[in-house]
């Protein structure tokens, strides 16, 4: 079915219909434009959201927690999601909007041509019909005049009073009028035939061709809308797999959160290495002087304050220095965050971690500066070999500056390595876990007198450890020794002097009597690079004989077919422990 045959008389309605169709196409184009603007705005707001919630510099320390890492991954996926919305907007602009604009322009131009052609055909037919109407009116007038002339002639011929000349005149008029009527009749017949031929051609050929062309244009518009709707859906479906992967990444980020690991990292961050203060001994005032009682009470209170300071409130306590740094010692300058340069104001474990991080940072800077210096030296050699490439003296200043920076970094590295070495060599305080372990002898604490003092032969009691101090050593593997939280071998309690004299015998028997606390499996291979540590292979199972005391090392041993038992320290983060109940 075609418009040319079925709608031959609906020229005006077809013109209105095709106009409304193009307006509907423009309406769909506006819909896509509004959606494009929404997609663009949505993508921009997503990017702004991800940017606003990026972790700040002051929050970098919290990035080690799995929940924070998962949130950072979620922000990354949100950013990628925003990118996909931008891809949707760009594809809608390039594939849909431009296509609709081009189709709409083409349809308007073709419709205008068709309507112009149809208007010309309508005007041509109307002019032919007007000519036919005129020819018909002329024929009707000539026919009435001829009939009137015939009647006049008949009357004149029958009238005996008229002369022959008068009758002849009426006869001539009649003959002329009849001839005019015949001529008008012939002209009318010719015009009628011409009009009928044109009308038949108009309604059967010319106008149907115009209507069929309008039908093609309207179908092209309809087909275009179908393709554009499907294309918009294809644009959305093309990014759907990537959006699905973004959502999968968010799910994986959520599943990566490990509350136990975060709890362990909280312990690792804030663990001071100290133990809670021991019970305050009973002070019999009748057997000691008041001054020693007050001093003992003050020491206990001070010890408790040190423990709290080293854990919970360490980040909130600020050091009070002399006014304008004039009074008091400035031997240890403060860093930007208010800590001492050697971090001596931190608890032992935190101090060692800070120093190790600082050393790693300096080593990285030295490696970068060394690479830059080597590059400058190669450039200088090239310039010296071929002066046309450049002047070697221009590189000399940069080379000297690089050497100066490198020397300064090496000095700082040596300084912080010294800080770390001294931190590892400093004996633990009496309220530290290492000292508390060393205060155990035969499973009991060293006896105290009624005045609260220990059996200590040191006359100078300023910074000397008590009776367990002779066994105290650094908790790092370099010492090659470690104290166990299990009971120490021996018989009964003895003085500090007896304990020191029997130190060698104690360590000889300790290896034989220590019972394993559990087992551990190596998560990563470890090469022993320092004294007191032992190597291990990935997946190897060892016995745990001393758990981590806050220094990052665990004491383990393995069965050696040749030498009996191999014992030493391994990094706690390299193993997975399973302790006995």
TrEMBL record:
Residues 467-484 have a biased composition (Low complexity). Residues 291-301, 427-441, 485-496 have a biased composition (Polar residues). Residues 456-466 have a biased composition (Acidic residues). Residues 122-201 form a coiled coil. One of its GO terms (cellular component) is plasma membrane. It comes from the Eukaryota. Residues 275-301, 425-500 are annotated as: Disordered. Residues 1-262 form the F-BAR domain. Keywords: Cell membrane, Coiled coil, Cytoplasm, Endocytosis, Membrane, SH3 domain. InterPro entries: AH/BAR_dom_sf, F_BAR_dom, FCH_dom, HR1_rho-bd, HR1_rpt_sf, HR1_TOCA, SH3-like_dom_sf, SH3_domain. GO terms for biological process: endocytosis; signal transduction. Belongs to the FNBP1 family. PANTHER family: CDC42-INTERACTING PROTEIN 4, ISOFORM B (PTHR15735:SF12), FCH AND DOUBLE SH3 DOMAINS PROTEIN (PTHR15735). This is Formin-binding protein 1-like isoform X14. The gene is LOC119632105.
